[in-house]
Design brief:
It contains 12 helices and 11 strands. The chain starts with 5 loop residues before the first helix and ends with a helix.
């Protein structure tokens, strides 16, 4: 089926109390793994590309591969730009066929973040492209975007209310204690803050940096209103870990397919596990009937 907007997926998830997995698409095998896992779990999914992934694979290749995967499956798939910070890059992604974009103005003053987000909404709304924004800084590193622990700060609930009221953005990514990359300890999420934010804003809430967050914490966050959960690091760990195991077992192997194939299968396994935790298994048919 054709790519779908993220907004439609999230509104359905919000109504029914589950979350949609947003999995980073970094190469062909991972894109195949996301599609295969979604099919096996009969779940809608979001494939998202960071600016780093686009620089690596090329915008045309990323868009083309995801479109092929979507057309070959019977589950709803969206293509989302993750952490778009450059206005020109956002426009290129829209023209290329992305069904959703994220504008990350979290490092800017509130009013400037609002102003730029509204400019992007003016472009996206008439053509049915979903828009996610971010408020509060999420610590860690994702590609070339780095936020130190000193810079990281939680989302202010009142600022979240003002931001959503002044933009009407489709979804809002918030900072409540998660971080990009690998965790050094067990992250402690601020559920009181999440609950307060959700009471003040009436749009779907997004949780970034969710690899390494306990299943229990993920389920609690979903119960409090989170309905899009980003996963990248866990997929990389599974994918690269399996490649390393295969190379250690057969150091003379030169056929990349015999290394990348098992790595893809390992990615399918972890993605299926996440889909089950998020509660979106079996929701594809329900979505298509709406």
């Amino acid at each position: 089926m054709a790519l779908v907007p993220v907004t439609e997926l999230l509104l359905h998830a919000e109504r029914e109390g589950y979350a949609i997995g947003a999995f980073n698409a970094n190469n062909m095998e991972i894109i195949q793994a996301i599609a295969e896992a979604a099919e096996k779990e009969n779940s809608p999914v979001i494939m998202q590309a960071s600016q780093g992934a686009i620089n690596y694979a090329g915008l045309e290749f990323i868009t083309g591969m995801v479109k092929i995967a979507a057309e070959a499956t019977r589950v709803p798939i969206a293509l989302h730009l993750d952490h778009g910070t450059d206005f020109g890059q956002i426009i290129k992604c829209i023209r290329s066929g992305f069904s959703s974009i994220m504008y990350d103005g979290s490092k800017l003053p509130l009013e400037q973040n609002i102003a730029i987000t509204n400019k992007i909404l003016e472009i996206c709304r008439p053509i049915g492209v979903s828009v996610e924004a971010e408020l509060g800084k999420i610590g860690g590193t994702e590609d070339d975007i780095h936020v130190s622990q000193k810079e990281a700060m939680y989302t202010d609930p009142e600022e979240a209310r003002i931001f959503v009221e002044k933009t009407g953005v489709d979804s809002l990514a918030i900072a409540i204690g998660t971080a990009h990359g690998q965790y050094k300890g067990d992250p402690k999420l601020d559920f009181v803050r999440l609950k307060e934010i959700k009471e003040l804003v009436k749009v779907p809430i997004v949780l970034h940096g969710s690899s390494g967050v306990s299943d229990e914490s993920i389920r609690k966050a979903i119960s409090l209103g989170v309905c899009k959960i980003n996963i990248d690091t866990n997929i990389r760990e599974a994918f690269v870990g399996e490649m390393r195991r295969r190379m250690a077992e057969k150091p003379g192997e030169i056929d990349p397919r015999k290394l990348l194939g098992p790595a893809k299968d390992a990615a399918v396994t972890i993605i299926r596990e996440k889909i089950k935790i998020f509660g979106s298994s079996g929701k594809a048919e329900k979505y298509s009937l709406d």
